Amino acid sequence: MRSGGWKPFWAALFASLLVLVPLVGGTVLLSRQQLRTQLRQAARSESGVPIQLPKTTDQLTVLLCVSGEQPGFVLAYLNASQNCVHLLSVPAVLTVPFAEEETSLARCYAAAGPARCREALAQVLALPEGTRYLAFSPDVLERIASRYGPVRVGFTGALTEEELARYGRSRAVQGISAGDAHEFLCQLQADEAFSPVRTAAARAAVWDAFLRQDLDLLPATLPDALRASSSALLTDLTALDYDALERTLEFLANNSAAVAAQALPGQ
């Protein structure tokens, strides 16, 4: 009788937990979002900058360029209304119009810089109006990205097991620092045995992993890191663009935005 009497108690307790646990989890998540927003507002208030809350109309498209002998290119499309981050890794060998002729995107970058690359890509791809450009040196990119720690990334779907083995890597998900990731991608890009599309797919995998793992941290840190490094960047991002980036990232982080990455031409 006594053991049987406990059964209704445990059943009621279990039913209560089924209701309370999701509620508590949702409350904690909401509290974190509210705290992040309040901290950002407090910081802006102290600096005298007018406060603007994230909204669904916030969006930003940026051509990200990493300079060097093996330059890398990624189009980042952040859209609050669609609650998404889309990343398109563009092969450096992509043919683009340049000086009444055609050349590779990498040569266009070496000859005329990121602004001309953005202009050339706009003639090849349907870039959204107002697309910005942001170019880093490898050192600056590593300095900005290193604060987030190693990225856990898997290259399944981008590279075969044999291709990865050539560089001492496997298809297992593995932690990789920003500096090591850049070095690895440069090695792939310089290796003529690799298809440019597969190399771009590997780059897409790294950026995809970074955005997925660190999206919650980016609103409060990335815009300020870019502002602090402004003298070392080549960009047409304005102060208003940095504010828009911060708001858009905050909206996307608060709403667990979907992150999708691919390599041109969609492979």
TrEMBL record:
It comes from the Bacteria. This is Cell envelope-related transcriptional attenuator domain-containing protein. It comes from Faecalibacterium cf. prausnitzii KLE1255.
